[in-house]
Design a protein that fits this description.
2 copies of one chain form a homodimer.
Chain A: H1 2-12, H2 27-46, H3 53-65, H4 70-76, H5 81-93, E1 97-101, E2 109-113, H6 115-139, H7 141-155
Antiparallel strand pairs in A: 1-2
Chain A binds a DNA duplex through helix 2 and helix 5.
DNA sequence: CCGAGTTAATGGCATATGCCGGCATATTGT
DNA sequence: ACAATATGCCGGCATATGCCATTAACTCGG
Protein backbone atom coordinates (compact mmCIF):
# COMPACT_ATOMS: atom_id res chain seq x y z
CA UNK A 1 0.00 0.00 0.00
CA UNK A 2 2.80 2.29 0.87
CA UNK A 3 5.04 1.57 -2.02
CA UNK A 4 2.11 1.58 -4.34
CA UNK A 5 0.90 5.00 -3.30
CA UNK A 6 4.34 6.39 -3.81
CA UNK A 7 4.80 4.78 -7.13
CA UNK A 8 1.46 5.72 -8.52
CA UNK A 9 0.24 8.90 -6.87
CA UNK A 10 2.26 11.26 -9.00
CA UNK A 11 1.74 10.00 -12.48
CA UNK A 12 -1.98 9.59 -12.07
CA UNK A 13 -2.78 13.06 -10.89
CA UNK A 14 -4.16 15.05 -13.78
CA UNK A 15 -2.53 18.21 -12.47
CA UNK A 16 0.83 17.38 -13.92
CA UNK A 17 2.77 14.84 -15.87
CA UNK A 18 5.96 13.38 -14.56
CA UNK A 19 9.16 15.33 -14.72
CA UNK A 20 8.15 18.10 -17.00
CA UNK A 21 7.34 21.01 -14.81
CA UNK A 22 9.55 22.12 -12.05
CA UNK A 23 12.90 21.98 -13.69
CA UNK A 24 11.88 23.05 -17.13
CA UNK A 25 11.64 26.55 -15.82
CA UNK A 26 14.83 26.60 -13.83
CA UNK A 27 17.56 28.47 -15.63
CA UNK A 28 20.19 26.93 -13.44
CA UNK A 29 19.02 23.38 -14.02
CA UNK A 30 18.87 23.91 -17.76
CA UNK A 31 22.36 25.30 -17.73
CA UNK A 32 23.78 22.46 -15.69
CA UNK A 33 22.19 19.79 -17.77
CA UNK A 34 23.49 21.31 -20.95
CA UNK A 35 26.92 21.74 -19.40
CA UNK A 36 27.05 18.10 -18.42
CA UNK A 37 26.01 16.95 -21.85
CA UNK A 38 28.36 19.17 -23.73
CA UNK A 39 31.12 18.54 -21.26
CA UNK A 40 31.00 14.87 -21.99
CA UNK A 41 31.22 15.56 -25.70
CA UNK A 42 34.33 17.64 -25.32
CA UNK A 43 35.80 15.33 -22.72
CA UNK A 44 35.46 12.39 -25.05
CA UNK A 45 36.96 14.28 -27.94
CA UNK A 46 39.93 15.36 -25.88
CA UNK A 47 40.56 11.96 -24.41
CA UNK A 48 43.45 11.05 -26.74
CA UNK A 49 45.35 14.02 -25.35
CA UNK A 50 44.84 12.89 -21.78
CA UNK A 51 43.28 16.24 -20.92
CA UNK A 52 39.81 16.87 -19.59
CA UNK A 53 37.79 19.60 -21.19
CA UNK A 54 38.23 21.74 -18.12
CA UNK A 55 41.94 21.33 -18.23
CA UNK A 56 41.94 22.29 -21.87
CA UNK A 57 40.06 25.41 -20.96
CA UNK A 58 42.64 26.25 -18.34
CA UNK A 59 45.54 25.75 -20.71
CA UNK A 60 43.84 27.78 -23.41
CA UNK A 61 43.15 30.63 -21.07
CA UNK A 62 46.67 30.65 -19.72
CA UNK A 63 48.00 30.56 -23.25
CA UNK A 64 45.76 33.42 -24.13
CA UNK A 65 46.58 35.57 -21.14
CA UNK A 66 50.28 34.90 -21.21
CA UNK A 67 51.21 34.70 -17.59
CA UNK A 68 48.27 35.82 -15.51
CA UNK A 69 48.16 35.76 -11.76
CA UNK A 70 45.95 33.15 -10.18
CA UNK A 71 43.35 35.81 -9.57
CA UNK A 72 43.46 37.02 -13.18
CA UNK A 73 42.98 33.50 -14.37
CA UNK A 74 40.19 32.79 -11.95
CA UNK A 75 38.37 35.98 -12.85
CA UNK A 76 38.65 35.38 -16.55
CA UNK A 77 37.11 31.96 -16.12
CA UNK A 78 34.46 33.09 -13.67
CA UNK A 79 35.95 30.66 -11.29
CA UNK A 80 36.65 30.73 -7.61
CA UNK A 81 40.29 31.39 -6.81
CA UNK A 82 40.64 28.27 -4.72
CA UNK A 83 38.89 26.20 -7.33
CA UNK A 84 41.32 27.46 -9.90
CA UNK A 85 44.24 26.56 -7.77
CA UNK A 86 42.91 23.10 -7.07
CA UNK A 87 42.19 22.53 -10.74
CA UNK A 88 45.68 23.63 -11.62
CA UNK A 89 47.25 21.06 -9.35
CA UNK A 90 47.17 18.08 -11.72
CA UNK A 91 48.51 20.29 -14.49
CA UNK A 92 51.36 21.48 -12.33
CA UNK A 93 52.03 17.94 -11.21
CA UNK A 94 52.24 16.86 -14.85
CA UNK A 95 54.57 19.75 -15.66
CA UNK A 96 52.28 21.41 -18.12
CA UNK A 97 51.92 24.49 -16.00
CA UNK A 98 54.27 26.27 -13.67
CA UNK A 99 53.65 28.77 -10.91
CA UNK A 100 56.16 31.37 -9.95
CA UNK A 101 56.23 34.20 -7.52
CA UNK A 102 55.65 37.58 -9.08
CA UNK A 103 58.69 39.85 -8.86
CA UNK A 104 56.86 43.00 -7.92
CA UNK A 105 54.25 41.50 -5.64
CA UNK A 106 55.56 38.56 -3.72
CA UNK A 107 52.02 37.55 -2.78
CA UNK A 108 51.02 36.96 -6.35
CA UNK A 109 51.72 33.84 -8.41
CA UNK A 110 52.20 34.01 -12.12
CA UNK A 111 50.80 31.06 -14.01
CA UNK A 112 52.63 30.01 -17.16
CA UNK A 113 52.63 27.12 -19.57
CA UNK A 114 55.79 25.06 -19.76
CA UNK A 115 57.02 24.12 -23.23
CA UNK A 116 55.38 20.76 -22.66
CA UNK A 117 52.22 22.61 -21.71
CA UNK A 118 52.26 24.61 -24.91
CA UNK A 119 52.83 21.49 -26.95
CA UNK A 120 50.06 19.65 -25.15
CA UNK A 121 47.72 22.55 -25.63
CA UNK A 122 48.37 22.71 -29.34
CA UNK A 123 47.90 18.99 -29.63
CA UNK A 124 44.64 19.20 -27.74
CA UNK A 125 43.46 22.11 -29.82
CA UNK A 126 43.16 19.83 -32.82
CA UNK A 127 40.93 17.51 -30.85
CA UNK A 128 38.99 20.40 -29.46
CA UNK A 129 38.26 21.62 -32.94
CA UNK A 130 36.80 18.26 -33.85
CA UNK A 131 34.39 18.42 -30.92
CA UNK A 132 33.56 21.99 -31.72
CA UNK A 133 32.86 21.18 -35.36
CA UNK A 134 30.88 18.11 -34.57
CA UNK A 135 28.70 20.02 -32.19
CA UNK A 136 28.19 22.95 -34.49
CA UNK A 137 27.35 20.76 -37.40
CA UNK A 138 24.57 19.24 -35.36
CA UNK A 139 23.40 22.33 -33.55
CA UNK A 140 24.06 24.91 -36.21
CA UNK A 141 26.98 27.23 -36.34
CA UNK A 142 25.07 30.47 -36.20
CA UNK A 143 22.82 29.07 -33.55
CA UNK A 144 25.81 28.10 -31.45
CA UNK A 145 27.31 31.51 -31.92
CA UNK A 146 24.13 33.14 -30.71
CA UNK A 147 23.98 30.81 -27.76
CA UNK A 148 27.57 31.56 -26.77
CA UNK A 149 26.79 35.21 -27.05
CA UNK A 150 23.89 34.89 -24.64
CA UNK A 151 25.95 32.83 -22.27
CA UNK A 152 28.73 35.39 -22.35
CA UNK A 153 26.26 38.12 -21.59
CA UNK A 154 25.05 36.12 -18.67
CA UNK A 155 28.57 35.63 -17.42
CA UNK A 156 29.59 39.21 -17.84
CA UNK A 157 29.44 42.37 -15.91
CA UNK A 158 25.83 43.31 -15.34
CA UNK A 159 25.12 40.09 -13.57
CA UNK A 160 27.97 40.19 -11.17
CA UNK A 161 25.88 42.26 -8.82
CA UNK A 162 22.34 41.09 -9.16
CA UNK A 163 22.58 39.91 -5.63
CA UNK B 1 64.42 31.35 -25.99
CA UNK B 2 61.82 28.88 -25.06
CA UNK B 3 60.73 30.15 -21.71
CA UNK B 4 61.12 33.69 -22.85
CA UNK B 5 58.81 33.27 -25.75
CA UNK B 6 56.21 31.85 -23.44
CA UNK B 7 56.32 34.50 -20.80
CA UNK B 8 56.79 37.63 -22.77
CA UNK B 9 55.77 37.19 -26.33
CA UNK B 10 52.17 37.36 -25.55
CA UNK B 11 51.42 40.75 -24.12
CA UNK B 12 53.65 42.61 -26.50
CA UNK B 13 52.62 41.04 -29.74
CA UNK B 14 50.25 43.23 -31.69
CA UNK B 15 48.58 40.19 -33.25
CA UNK B 16 46.16 39.75 -30.45
CA UNK B 17 45.04 41.15 -27.15
CA UNK B 18 45.04 39.07 -24.06
CA UNK B 19 42.33 36.58 -23.30
CA UNK B 20 39.81 37.34 -25.95
CA UNK B 21 40.28 34.77 -28.61
CA UNK B 22 40.53 31.12 -27.90
CA UNK B 23 37.80 30.63 -25.40
CA UNK B 24 35.32 33.05 -26.83
CA UNK B 25 34.57 30.52 -29.49
CA UNK B 26 34.39 27.47 -27.29
CA UNK B 27 30.84 26.41 -26.64
CA UNK B 28 31.87 24.31 -23.74
CA UNK B 29 33.84 27.07 -22.05
CA UNK B 30 30.99 29.51 -22.47
CA UNK B 31 28.60 27.03 -20.98
CA UNK B 32 30.78 26.28 -18.01
CA UNK B 33 31.45 29.87 -17.21
CA UNK B 34 27.79 30.69 -17.31
CA UNK B 35 26.99 27.65 -15.22
CA UNK B 36 29.46 28.69 -12.56
CA UNK B 37 28.13 32.21 -12.45
CA UNK B 38 24.50 31.24 -12.30
CA UNK B 39 25.23 28.41 -9.94
CA UNK B 40 26.63 30.79 -7.43
CA UNK B 41 23.56 32.96 -7.70
CA UNK B 42 21.24 30.07 -6.98
CA UNK B 43 23.52 28.64 -4.33
CA UNK B 44 23.54 31.91 -2.47
CA UNK B 45 19.80 32.26 -2.68
CA UNK B 46 19.25 28.75 -1.38
CA UNK B 47 21.70 29.09 1.44
CA UNK B 48 19.09 29.70 4.16
CA UNK B 49 17.65 26.30 3.40
CA UNK B 50 20.98 24.59 3.78
CA UNK B 51 20.67 23.13 0.30
CA UNK B 52 23.00 23.62 -2.63
CA UNK B 53 21.49 24.45 -5.97
CA UNK B 54 22.35 21.00 -7.21
CA UNK B 55 20.64 19.37 -4.29
CA UNK B 56 17.60 21.48 -4.90
CA UNK B 57 17.56 20.25 -8.47
CA UNK B 58 17.75 16.67 -7.26
CA UNK B 59 14.89 17.12 -4.82
CA UNK B 60 12.80 18.89 -7.42
CA UNK B 61 13.33 16.16 -9.95
CA UNK B 62 12.56 13.42 -7.49
CA UNK B 63 9.45 15.27 -6.43
CA UNK B 64 8.48 15.60 -10.03
CA UNK B 65 9.12 12.03 -11.01
CA UNK B 66 7.60 10.50 -7.91
CA UNK B 67 9.86 7.61 -7.15
CA UNK B 68 12.18 7.08 -10.05
CA UNK B 69 14.91 4.53 -10.14
CA UNK B 70 18.42 5.83 -9.90
CA UNK B 71 18.81 5.39 -13.63
CA UNK B 72 15.58 7.27 -14.35
CA UNK B 73 16.73 10.11 -12.18
CA UNK B 74 20.18 10.19 -13.70
CA UNK B 75 18.81 10.16 -17.21
CA UNK B 76 16.34 12.92 -16.56
CA UNK B 77 19.14 15.10 -15.25
CA UNK B 78 21.60 14.14 -17.96
CA UNK B 79 23.78 12.92 -15.21
CA UNK B 80 26.02 9.93 -14.79
CA UNK B 81 24.48 7.17 -12.70
CA UNK B 82 27.33 7.09 -10.26
CA UNK B 83 27.41 10.85 -10.03
CA UNK B 84 23.75 10.79 -9.17
CA UNK B 85 24.30 8.23 -6.53
CA UNK B 86 27.18 10.13 -5.00
CA UNK B 87 25.23 13.38 -5.05
CA UNK B 88 22.34 11.69 -3.35
CA UNK B 89 24.47 10.57 -0.45
CA UNK B 90 24.33 13.75 1.62
CA UNK B 91 20.60 13.93 1.06
CA UNK B 92 20.13 10.37 2.22
CA UNK B 93 22.38 11.00 5.17
CA UNK B 94 20.24 14.00 6.13
CA UNK B 95 17.07 11.96 5.77
CA UNK B 96 15.60 14.02 2.97
CA UNK B 97 15.74 11.19 0.53
CA UNK B 98 15.34 7.45 0.90
CA UNK B 99 16.34 4.59 -1.30
CA UNK B 100 14.49 1.33 -1.39
CA UNK B 101 14.75 -1.82 -3.35
CA UNK B 102 12.21 -2.12 -6.11
CA UNK B 103 9.75 -4.95 -5.56
CA UNK B 104 9.73 -6.21 -9.09
CA UNK B 105 13.36 -5.79 -9.91
CA UNK B 106 15.58 -6.33 -6.94
CA UNK B 107 18.49 -4.69 -8.74
CA UNK B 108 16.72 -1.38 -9.01
CA UNK B 109 16.52 1.27 -6.31
CA UNK B 110 13.56 3.58 -6.02
CA UNK B 111 14.38 7.08 -4.90
CA UNK B 112 11.78 8.89 -2.83
CA UNK B 113 11.52 12.03 -0.78
CA UNK B 114 10.87 11.59 2.90
CA UNK B 115 8.28 13.88 4.48
CA UNK B 116 11.19 15.97 5.70
CA UNK B 117 12.49 15.99 2.15
CA UNK B 118 9.20 17.23 0.79
CA UNK B 119 9.05 19.93 3.43
CA UNK B 120 12.61 20.99 2.75
CA UNK B 121 11.96 21.08 -0.94
CA UNK B 122 8.92 23.29 -0.55
CA UNK B 123 10.84 25.58 1.75
CA UNK B 124 13.67 25.79 -0.73
CA UNK B 125 11.32 26.42 -3.58
CA UNK B 126 10.50 29.83 -2.14
CA UNK B 127 14.17 30.71 -2.11
CA UNK B 128 14.63 29.29 -5.57
CA UNK B 129 11.90 31.53 -6.86
CA UNK B 130 13.70 34.56 -5.52
CA UNK B 131 16.85 33.64 -7.36
CA UNK B 132 14.89 32.87 -10.47
CA UNK B 133 13.06 36.19 -10.32
CA UNK B 134 16.17 38.14 -9.58
CA UNK B 135 17.94 36.63 -12.50
CA UNK B 136 15.09 37.07 -14.90
CA UNK B 137 14.54 40.65 -13.88
CA UNK B 138 18.13 41.35 -14.82
CA UNK B 139 18.40 39.16 -17.86
CA UNK B 140 14.90 39.44 -19.18
CA UNK B 141 12.19 36.87 -18.74
CA UNK B 142 11.58 36.17 -22.38
CA UNK B 143 15.28 36.13 -23.03
CA UNK B 144 15.79 33.61 -20.26
CA UNK B 145 12.98 31.50 -21.61
CA UNK B 146 14.57 31.45 -25.03
CA UNK B 147 17.92 30.60 -23.53
CA UNK B 148 16.46 27.70 -21.56
CA UNK B 149 14.80 26.50 -24.67
CA UNK B 150 18.09 26.42 -26.55
CA UNK B 151 19.81 24.71 -23.66
CA UNK B 152 17.06 22.09 -23.51
CA UNK B 153 17.43 21.48 -27.20
CA UNK B 154 21.11 21.01 -26.68
CA UNK B 155 20.51 18.57 -23.86
CA UNK B 156 17.89 16.61 -25.69
CA UNK B 157 17.72 13.77 -28.06
CA UNK B 158 19.40 14.76 -31.28
CA UNK B 159 22.66 15.43 -29.56
CA UNK B 160 22.89 12.22 -27.68
CA UNK B 161 24.52 10.65 -30.65
CA UNK B 162 26.58 13.27 -32.33
CA UNK B 163 29.58 11.20 -31.54
C1' DC C 1 59.00 53.14 10.48
C1' DC C 2 54.73 51.14 12.76
C1' DG C 3 50.36 49.24 13.01
C1' DA C 4 45.58 48.75 10.95
C1' DG C 5 43.43 47.38 7.01
C1' DT C 6 43.56 45.14 2.45
C1' DT C 7 44.83 41.77 -0.88
C1' DA C 8 46.82 37.14 -2.95
C1' DA C 9 47.27 32.75 -2.18
C1' DT C 10 47.11 28.32 0.62
C1' DG C 11 44.98 24.37 3.14
C1' DG C 12 41.15 21.99 4.74
C1' DC C 13 36.63 20.40 4.14
C1' DA C 14 32.50 19.24 1.53
C1' DT C 15 29.94 18.49 -2.45
C1' DA C 16 29.70 17.62 -7.78
C1' DT C 17 30.72 14.71 -11.54
C1' DG C 18 32.47 10.99 -14.14
C1' DC C 19 34.95 6.56 -15.32
C1' DC C 20 35.90 1.85 -14.37
C1' DG C 21 35.55 -2.62 -12.38
C1' DG C 22 32.83 -5.70 -9.63
C1' DC C 23 28.50 -7.98 -7.85
C1' DA C 24 23.90 -9.25 -7.74
C1' DT C 25 19.89 -9.83 -10.29
C1' DA C 26 17.19 -10.30 -14.37
C1' DT C 27 16.59 -12.01 -19.27
C1' DT C 28 17.30 -14.92 -23.08
C1' DG C 29 18.51 -18.64 -26.19
C1' DT C 30 18.59 -23.49 -26.32
C1' DA D 1 16.60 -25.60 -16.12
C1' DC D 2 21.17 -23.58 -17.40
C1' DA D 3 24.70 -21.05 -19.20
C1' DA D 4 25.61 -16.72 -21.45
C1' DT D 5 24.45 -12.14 -21.57
C1' DA D 6 22.54 -7.83 -20.18
C1' DT D 7 21.19 -4.55 -16.65
C1' DG D 8 21.20 -1.71 -12.24
C1' DC D 9 23.72 -0.42 -8.82
C1' DC D 10 27.89 -0.06 -5.59
C1' DG D 11 32.82 1.38 -4.39
C1' DG D 12 36.96 3.34 -5.37
C1' DC D 13 39.54 6.78 -7.54
C1' DA D 14 40.35 11.25 -9.73
C1' DT D 15 39.13 15.72 -10.99
C1' DA D 16 35.94 20.04 -10.51
C1' DT D 17 34.21 23.63 -7.70
C1' DG D 18 33.33 26.45 -3.84
C1' DC D 19 33.48 28.23 1.02
C1' DC D 20 36.04 29.34 5.06
C1' DA D 21 39.92 30.34 7.97
C1' DT D 22 44.70 31.40 7.90
C1' DT D 23 49.04 33.27 6.47
C1' DA D 24 52.07 36.21 3.83
C1' DA D 25 52.74 40.52 1.66
C1' DC D 26 51.49 45.04 0.28
C1' DT D 27 49.37 49.97 1.37
C1' DC D 28 48.64 53.81 3.85
C1' DG D 29 47.94 57.08 7.51
C1' DG D 30 50.44 59.02 11.21
Amino acid sequence: MNARSVVRKRGSAPERLAGTDLLNHCNNAALRKAARRLGRLYDAALQPSGLRATQYILLAQIYDLGCPTMADLADSLIMDLSATRHSLEPLVRDRLVRLRVDEKDRRARRVTLTPAGIAKFKEAMQLWRKAQDRFERAFGSARASKLRSELSALSSEPFKEIF
